[in-house]
Specification:
Blueprint: H1 3-23, H2 28-36, E1 39-41, E2 47-50, E3 56-58, H3 87-112, E4 134-135, E5 160-161, E6 181-189, E7 200-207, E8 213-223, E9 232-233, E10 237-241, E11 244-247, E12 263-272, E13 278-280, E14 291-295
């Protein structure tokens, strides 16, 4: 018999038993005992059972992998010194060089200009973009030129440098991620999952502990509107999480059976200890990692 036909007949038997329970023809213990016998094996040899809520659940394999190693604790990673601390000295040095060039140019121009005496004394004011205020005083020299008809006298005033504004540089420290193993992403295949089709989850782990860590990990599935109890989970797999960031290959998939329209779910990555107690992975900022997806 085709695997799809087996799933269909099991669901029809579940519906018949559910109707008998609602009509009082059988008791709750009789109903529970009957649905426990509704076991279907897929093409990969995995056993699927119907829960009391009408959803299919895959049974875990009995093989026990080696025990999970504890995450080694190491000295927290020292933050990289912000490179922007060198910007302020470089800007100050550049301003000093520009100031020296400005002073030298002013002295050269002042020494080469002819000086004439006149009754009015014009004043020239130069503005430079500098943090300090610098006032240069140059002694006034008088030169007399005797033209054929008139004598003119000019007086040159020393240029005044005044600052426009002072820039403030704010240096933001780099965040430090404590040593540990985190989940930073979760890829779903197929991209648009459908009912009665295996959904495979590919998590991306970030290991900042400094050494490879072995985990028995899996993915738990929750309905978006009800997240107290999981709807199901993928088969667990033991894998070594190397230092750095990378995507891991899962041990199997999860499928949604039954009819209906599109439903929204939340996936969370967890690891199991020796007592098979799950602990969910966090993101690098310490918050719980979870990813939303839909099945139609």
């Amino acid at each position: 018999m085709d695997t799809q036909d087996q799933f269909k007949r099991a669901e029809e038997e579940y519906s018949r038993l559910k109707s008998q329970l609602a009509a009082g023809q059988i008791t709750q213990p009789q109903f529970d005992a009957a649905i426990r016998k509704l076991i279907v094996k897929d093409d990969q040899g995995r056993a699927w059972t119907l829960g009391d809520n009408g959803y299919w659940n895959v049974q875990q394999t009995p093989t026990e992998p080696p025990p999970v190693q504890d995450v080694p604790r190491q000295t927290p990673i020292a933050p990289e010194l912000p490179r922007t601390r060198y910007v302020v000295p470089l800007v100050a040095a550049g301003c000093l060089v520009l100031l020296c060039l400005f002073v030298a140019g002013g002295l050269i121009v002042a020494s080469n200009l002819p000086i004439f005496k006149v009754a009015q004394v014009p004043t020239a004011t130069a503005i430079a973009v500098l943090a300090p205020t610098v006032v240069l005083e140059t002694p006034t020299e008088t030169a007399t030129a005797v033209p054929a008809t008139a004598t003119a006298t000019f007086t040159l005033a020393a240029p005044t440098a005044a600052p426009l504004a002072t820039a403030t540089i704010v240096v933001t420290p780099t965040a430090v991620i404590p040593p540990g193993v985190y989940v930073t992403g979760l890829r779903v295949e197929p991209v648009v999952p459908v009912r009665r089709q295996d959904v495979t989850f590919f998590p991306t782990f970030l290991n900042t502990s400094g050494a490879t860590v072995n985990y028995r990990w899996l993915v738990y599935i929750f309905k978006l509107e009800v997240q107290k109890n999981s709807l199901g989970e993928t088969p667990s797999i033991v894998a070594g999480i190397p230092v750095g960031q990378g995507e891991q290959i899962p041990g199997g998939g999860w499928r949604l059976t039954g009819g209906g329209g599109c439903e929204e779910f939340v996936a969370r990555v967890a690891w199991l200890d020796s007592a098979k107690k799950p602990t969910f992975f966090n993101k690098p900022d310490g918050s719980l990692f979870e990813s939303k997806f839909s099945v139609c």
